[in-house]
Design a protein that fits this description.
2 domains, binds adenosine-5'-triphosphate, 332 residues, alpha+beta, 5-stranded antiparallel beta sheet, globular, OB fold (Dihydrolipoamide Acetyltransferase, E2P), Rossmann fold
Length: 332
Amino acid sequence: MALVIQDLHKSFDGHVALDRINLSIGNAEFVCLLGPSGCGKTTLLRIIAGLLGSDGGKISLDGRDLVNVPARDRGFGIVFQSYSLFPHMTIAQNIGYGLKIRRTPDDEIAERVNSLLDVVRLNGFGERYPNQLSGGQQQRVAIARALAVNPSLLLLDEPLSALDARVRAGLRQELREVQQRLGIPTLMVTHDQEEAMSMADKIVCMHGGRIVQEGSPRELYIAPRTRFVAEFMGHSNLLSKTVVQAWMPELLPDAHAGDAELFIRPERITMQKAAGAEGQVISTSFLGSIQRVQVLWKAQPLLVETSTTVDWTPGDRVHLSIAAQDCAWVQA
Ligand code: ATP
């Protein structure tokens, strides 16, 4: 493992912001810290960067203890949400800044800057100033600047959230490609589940200063352990034990399942029009590639996602099929 964090904790004025965090990032692994506002993501990233002290715990990179190493000596590349480029410097000077303060010879800097302009697809922009670039281009410069020093770890704090949806989607892919090509262990903070799923090897889901579950995007989406993770990772239906007992007793868990709810993703429910059936379409929204349909089924509101081949209309009577293998019990 490249980065290993053990038992890290941090409080602000008695309020626990991070509660015994254990986390590791493998060589070349892209890890996303995902969670709602205030769950501690930025605090964790800032402690790893060395910009904030912790109250205890260990952080090491390739076996080297980092706790007492100042930020500037950690050799990490950091990209923030606000591009924070130096406005009075050209793009080339911005990208080469870290090398300049390390007293790298000018010709080496020029060579490295040129190759990085290439990496972030900004050839020919080197002599411009930041205010002559779009937001997406400025953020690519910030990424190139972070990569210039050959960082041993790349830390990204919501780097794409200030950009519009189209630019953001393009840059996600570019950033991921660059990270894979260079093989840099990377930690990105985001509250955007789709962003985390499309970029990460591993998602670490945080809630209230704790890691509540970690795993591949697929694992977290298909097999969340708690209601919180199920709901945070996408749309879901959660049915109480009482409802399951009444309508689908064959799906009831064994006696040890505790305070659990039955979870099923909307696209796993199959729906057919059937006169007199027990379900009724309440509302629909057409989203292009799919339709999202609210159904009242045995007095239980359910969300169903279907292809767009059938045009559902409120009032349609529908038969729903839910297969046992598509359901899971999650902690309420
Ligand atoms: P967001 O997505 O909104 O940035 P976050 O998950 O990054 O949220 P943090 O910024 O890490 O959350 O904050 C975690 C908790 O610690 C919050 O309750 C926050 O109010 C608190 N906190 C963060 N920084 C400080 C500080 N300097 N002083 C006091 N409390 C702080």
